[in-house]
Structure formats: structure tokens, C-alpha cells
Amino acid sequence: MSAPRTRLLALGDGRPTIEVLEAGDGPPLLFLHGAGGVPAWVGALPLLAEHFRVIAPLLPGFGQSTGLEFLEDQLDLVLHQFDVLEALELQRPYVVGESMGGWIAAEMAALRPRDIGRLALLAPIGLWRDEHPVADIFGMTTPEMVPLLFHDLQSPAAQEMLSLGALLSDKDDRSEAQIETLIGMARGMRTVAKFLFPLPETGLERRLWRIHAPTLLLWGAEDRLVAPIYGELFREKIRGARLSVVPAAAHLLALEQPAAVARAVTEFR
Amino acid sequence: MKISWFHLMPYRWLPADFRERYHSVWVDVPNQLYDPVRGHELYNEYLDMLEYADEVGFDAIGVNEHHQNAYGMMPSPNLMAAALARRAQHAMLLVLGNSIALYNPPVRVAEEMAMLDVISGGRLIAGFPVGTSMDINYCYGQNPVTVRDKYREGNDLIIKAWTATEPFPFNGKYTKLRYVNIWPRPIQQPHPPVWVPGLGSIETWDWCVDHGYNYSYLSFSGYKRAQKMMDGYWERRSARGVEANPYSAAFFQQVCISDTDAACEREWWPHVDYFFNKCLHLYPGMSEAPGYRSEASLRAGVVAQVGNTTGNMGMNKSWKELVEQRYIVAGSPATVRQQLEELARALRTGHLLLGLHIGSAPRELTQRSTYLCASDVLPHLRPIWNEYEDHWWPKALPAARRVQPRRTDASQANDERRTTNDAPRAGARP
What is the pLDDT of residues B24-67, one digit of tens each? Predict the structure, then answer.
């Protein structure tokens, strides 16, 4: 799997400048990342790039993207994604979003239903039921979060995340590169918190009826961050939506079951 | 210099196995651990302690704000200050303070603090903390990324509300008001002195310097560990060409005094142990919400350029270690005198906030420590920094112009009756 091409896209004065990752040929697929960004071109992404031109713009605060200060609220955030879409000259693209990116994708499809061709939402956040509180990603340690994100804690991806968590310490024993990694993670989480603190529910539910795009929902059967019950809820609220539960996967299903996720996304019509 | 007696108001009855059984002393510590009847006794006992500090001559008595916290039982410091304002008649009221971004609209803070200033005859010191992340983000749900901006806007609104004498509109990003016109307005002109408690972010230093506010460094780690931080503040001040007046800074230090050093350890260790090993049991997953600190401060913290104190708050240390490393200043009056003078000169601080109640300390022990401090330590410290003028102290009405609380005729009659016979209490109303 080759590394994606990367470039910076300046949206104009007083607006963000964003890093866009891109790989593959074929029909365009806009990938909206979750709270962890796209630290590596792994999981379902390279598999999707065998069928699509995968375009992954990074939100301000992630990678080399800057300009969070220009996005004051949720409406700014969703309109920003349309600005990106227009700057990339994409018309009615297939939008695939995971977790937070799934929420943004759903908001986009509700705000401008005619401008989104198809939707695939991978364990999106955005709904809330008191009986099934979405875990508080802003109030837990990394070792506590990893079991919510991964079904197989021995997998390389889970182990790598645990090792990142171990970088947080009171001692000054980290390398420059490790410090930059930590600062980078904090910068990304700052973006997430700006739109989703203290809990990830901002009224999406009352807008879901507006979505016209054919919608596929994918959920890890073992998701402990956002319980699979939310998959049912999304399916009920979005007209004609299809839900597929992926076994042996938790919240980061595109990392844990890349082949199953890529196949479902590719075959969805 | 001026010395304040500062209370945190910890809950005294956390179970022995608290650390093993519970997540944290803060945010999600279940309130079934709180016994309101014991709480009733504790509030009154703690207010007595503050009133005693007033009687023995401390310059100010201090309270602060925490939420969902078992070592700080003052979600509303203004209520405590109001409870103190009438019976404590000499000391200034240090309310350190109100986390102004939490109040909607922030004119509520302007109003309540003006009330305190008027009730007390102009004795209020107005603390404007941003607030810890636990308090303002995890407990009060403020957005960590925008809360400092909201704080700054709240500050502007409160100061304008205190100083304007005509109604005005306020079109802020977080607060929009057509008519701002607070009644009452404060006695102190143009407004009560503002102190900003901080934990060492560079932005807070600049904020204090630019607004002429006092910077109050509140730490449980003691003065030795604060040196780098306070040096940073003074450097920042001089870099901006502002006089290094010691009264522009305050420092919080926990202190215990007994007749001898040996007696101090014997008498105080259980209560100091309770504080450091129970009250500071904090959950690292909620120490700081993402975005609470700027990237610059984060970077400084990560590489410890200005001294990272969050990681070493004093847990699991012995009495000897806590004393030698000056997490606490403890011992005989002579020992404490010498160390507090060293503190004042090393940190260049004109205001000392003394935590003379620690952890589970009972009334008598605290009172003895307070008495020894007032009689044997304060006189020695007061002349330090006399050559500077304190621009950060309340301009209270002269004592002769301040009204003393008067007892009602009914309560006097009750007292007389009680001393002559055991007649039932007269109704509160005539």
C-alpha cells in the first residue's frame, strides 16, 4: 500500500488552511476522520483506495491543518466541510465518516440534502440516550479508552495506542519527536472538544429526517464507546438506511476489520 | 506585608479506604459520602475558625470556589463571605473568588460582589479565577476551548457594570444585554481590587499585568516548588516594564504551628496525612479537559520549562519529606517565622495566604495554631516590604463609619429571660 499524496488547501482569507490526503483512482470518496485524525494510512483506507479516489481532508488542528479559530460553532464547522468539498470540486460525492466524522457527514447531508450523493457512517456519534451514555472521551485515561475502541487488545493498533498513552508522564524523559506527537494529539483533541464538549449531542436527531442520501450504517458489534443500540436509532431515523453490524470489532471498526468495512462500503449502492 | 487566613473547608469524614474505593476526591466523588448533619456542624465550625482569625488580627479572611469536591465545600464562596461579613468586623473579605465564566449573565457576579462590598463597608477583595478544569469543564460543562475568551468578556462586563453610572447595552459574544445597570454598586471606587488566582499559565501573568490585577499563585506544593513559577511572573512583569511591587503577588502556603517542632508532628501529622493522601486523591483522566490550556502553556508544561507542579502534589510523602521540602511550613513559632520570612523574600510576595486549617484538623488544634501565628509570627512578618505601597488592598470605609450589627430587642429580651428563668423562647417577631 503506497502512502497517500498530501497537499495543503488554502480556503481563503479568514478561513482555515487544510491538509488533504488523497490516494487511488475511480469515483471520488470523501473520507471524514474521527477524533484521532488520520495518523497513518492504514485499515480500510488503502483498501478503499483500490476502488475509489479517496480524499481525506483533515480538520483544523489535525496534521498540518490550521485555522480552528475561524470555526466558532457547529454551523461553521459543517459549512467549512462544504467549502472543502467545493474547493475540491466534488459534486454529490460519496461521503464516508467515522465516529465524529460520521456525525459531521450526517449533519452535512441534513443541511444540504441534495449535495451529498451517498453516505456511509461508521459508528457515528451525535445521538444520546440516558440509558446508554456515550463514553466520555474527554474524561478518561488512554489505558481506559483503548478497551472501548478495540475488540482485540493484542492487535498492533491497540498496542500502539497504549504506547502513546504511556508517553504521558510527569518525568522529562521524552524525545522531541515524542513531545511533538503528544502536542499533536492534544491539538486534535482541542478541535474535538470545541464542538463536542461536554457530551456529543447537538441536536442531530431532530435533523436526521432531512437526509435524502442512501445511507449505510456500520457498527462494531463490540463497540463500548458508542453502543450498537445507536446504530438501530440512526437506522430508524434516516429514511431507508441500512445497518450492518460488524463482528469482532469495537469502535474503531475500520482499523479492526478493514476488509469487511471496505467491502461493505464499496458494495453499498 | 499582609497575611490572610484562608480556608478550603474540606470534608472531615472520608473513609479510611477512600483511595482504594473511590475514583477521585473531585467531580464524581459520590455525594452519599456526605452527611449533611455533619456538614451542618462543619460549616459552623469552619465559619467560627474564620471569625476567630478576624478576632486575633489577621488582615483578611479568605474563601474560594470549588464544585463537587470533598476538600473544598464552597460551591458558593459568596454565601460564606456573606455569612462572615457581619460578625467578622475587622478583616478584609478575600473571595478568591468567583469563576466568572460560569455565571450567566456575569452581571450576577458584579451584583453579588457589590452586595458583599456594601454589606461589609468596602472590605471586599474580588477574586476572578478562570477556575480549574475540574470545576469549570467537568463539573460546570463550560467548553474548555472557548472558556478563556468567555472569561475575558465576563471580566470586561463586570468591570464596566461596577464603574458605569448609567445603564448601558453590552453586545458580547457570550452575553448580550440591552440594559446593564446594577443595583447596588460597590462602595470601593472605581471598584474592589481584583486578584486572579492562577496555576502558572503565561497568559494569566500577562492578563494580570495588563489589567493591574494581583496574581495569586495557589499551590499545595509549597514555596520551594513555586520558585521557578514566581520567578517567571516577575520576569514577565519586568519584561513588560511594570514595577516589581511585591503586593502585586500573593502566595498560598499551608502552615501548622505547635509549641515545639516535635509537638507539631505529633499533633498535626494525622490531619496533614488526611489532606495530602485523601484530599489530593485526583483522577488523572480528568485533570485537564482538551483545550483548557493554550498550546504555548501546554508546551511549557510538557517540557517543564516553568516547573511542572501538577505531578507532584505531595501524595505518599512522610511528614519529614513534606516539611523538609516545604510542602507545608510546620513547627514551633520560631521555625515557622523563619521559613515564612524566607518564603516572602524568595518569592517576593507581599501577600501571604495561610492555610492554617489542614485536612481533618479539629477546632482546638486549628485555633491554637492560629493563635500562635497571630501572636508570635505575624508581628515579625508585617514589616517586610513596608517600602512598597499596596495598591491591591481594599479601600474600606474607616472603622468608625462602618455600621456594627445591632441585636434586635427580641433577642436581647430572650437572653434576659434565659438568664432569669427557663421561659420559652419569644417569637422572632414582636
Answer: 999 999 999 999 999 999 999 999 999 999 999 999 999 999 99
C-alpha cell at A241: 438506511
The C-alpha of B348 sits at a distance from chain A's nearest C-alpha, in angstroms, of: 28
> Would you say domain A5-267 falls under CATH 3.40.50.1820?
yes
Nearest-CA distance B92 → chain A (Å): 37
pLDDT tens column, A158-207: 999 998 877 776 666 778 888 888 899 999 999 999 999 999 999 999 99
The Cβ of residue B55 has, within 10 Å, a number of other Cβ atoms equal to 16
Query: Domain limits of chain A?
Result: 5-267
CA distance, residue A168 to nearest chain B CA (Å): 9
Global confidence as pTM: 0.93
Tell me the DSSP string of B267-324. Answer: HHHHHHHHIIIIIT---GGGSS-TTSS-HHHHHHHHTTTT---TT-S-TT--HHHHHH
Q: Is A193 on the interface with B (CB under 8 A)?
A: yes
Query: Which residue has cell 479539629?
Result: B362
Q: What is the pLDDT of residues B144-174, one digit of tens each?
A: 999 999 999 999 999 999 999 999 999 999 9
Asked if residue A151 lies in contact with residue A256, where contact means CB atoms within 8 angstroms, the answer is: yes
Q: Which residue of A has its CA nearest to B139?
A: A198
Domains observed in chain B: 2-398 (3.20.20.30)
Contact A178, A167 (CB under 8 A): yes
Contact assignment for B308 to A140 by CB distance below 8 Å: no
